[in-house]
Amino acid sequence: MNPNIFIPTCDKKEIEMETEKRNRETRNRYRDYRCVYKLKSWVQDHEKNFVASTFCQNPCEGAGKVFETTVSKYVNSNLYLKPNHPFNNLCHNPAEWAREYLHNHPQHMDCELLADNPAEWAGRILNRQPKDEILWKELVQNPTEWAGKMIKRVAKSSYFFWDTYYLYSNPSPWVYDVIKKFSLEPVWYILSENPAEWAREMLMKDPERINFSHLCLNPAEWARELLLENPSRIDYNYLCLNPAKWVWEILETNPGGIFWSWLCRNPSDWVVDVLEKNQFHINWYWLSKNPHLFEYDYAFIRERFWNTFGEELMQVCFHPRNMGKFSGWGYESGLEEDF
Q: How many CA atoms does the CB half-sphere of 285 hold within 13 Å?
């Protein structure tokens, strides 16, 4: 053997440390609920097209994982400093992963942007803020009960400024209570977007006030009926933003009227299916917000199951004491009742 050849030796402690590191990473991955999701296979080919400022608003838990890996290059970028950093848009996002990130990076917290966030954690933060730090015109369009309580609490105050433009787009029952209590004048074209039953009743009392362009944004079944009764008044551009499933049935009858860029802003699951077949029409800036870009990662779920509690669960379930239950689970136990 040539004495000049260096043969590296592996220190046993180093090997143990490396093994423990890998095991720890695996355990953390199994505990991370965000790993349960993955991007749809055809979407993965377009990851480079994701836009940080809109992807921050994607409420799917799987988006949190992609957020860490795909758009992390923006974290230390000098181009995106507060107050215009795109990560501030996380304040609009109701997902738990968004809350965790904002908690760990308070420099991206903007309480004004929390006003339209329906999450309970957003409500807890806003309830601790001074009145002058709350964007009330945004809060009036928040459909949650906690938003309604905050609005009612200050509604009698001279401090509060009514912005009925946003208020009439909110379908919550508490909104109708406020409208009646303060005899607010309707904003009819915005009311036409509102899917609530009380909004329909108000419109039907004065149908000449219905704005059909804004009605095309309304996902309610009664809105669909009105549009089908007045097909010449359908605004197909606005209809592309409507999340209801029945919208595509109408759009298919007039494919030349589809405004694809607006359709990409639509957050519905059927939009993702349509765009999969029309990828050359995709505007990734808007589509990045759609939570339906993700699907369950069954391969990972299976791996996590068998590498954690899977074997123990099988031992418990198929213990001989449970043989009488096998037939109900779809297995033959060999007992008489199975036959």
A: 4
Which residues are within 8 A (CB) of 270 and not within 5 positions of it... i.e. 6 or more apart?
A: 245, 248
Rounded (10°) angle between helices 145-154 and 173-182: 20
- How many Å apart are CA 280 and CA 313, to the nearest integer? 47
Contact between residue 108 and residue 102 where contact means Cβ atoms under 8 Å apart: yes
Q: Name the 3-class secondary structure at 270.
A: helix
**Rounded-to-integer distance, Cα 83 and Cα 73, Å:** 18
Q: Cα(64)–Cα(20) distance, rounded to whole angstroms?
A: 26
Q: Return all residues near 74 (Cβ < 8 A) that are at least 6 apart.
A: 52, 80, 86, 87
pLDDT digits (tens, 9 = 90+) for 33-78: 788 899 999 998 887 777 777 888 999 999 988 887 766 665 555 5
The pLDDT tens digits of the residues spanning 190-226 come to 999 999 999 999 999 999 999 999 999 999 999 999 9
The Cα 215–Cα 194 span in angstroms is: 8
Contacts of 76 (CB under 8 A, 6+ apart): none
Q: Does residue 331 register a pLDDT over 90?
A: no
Residue 88 DSSP symbol:
G
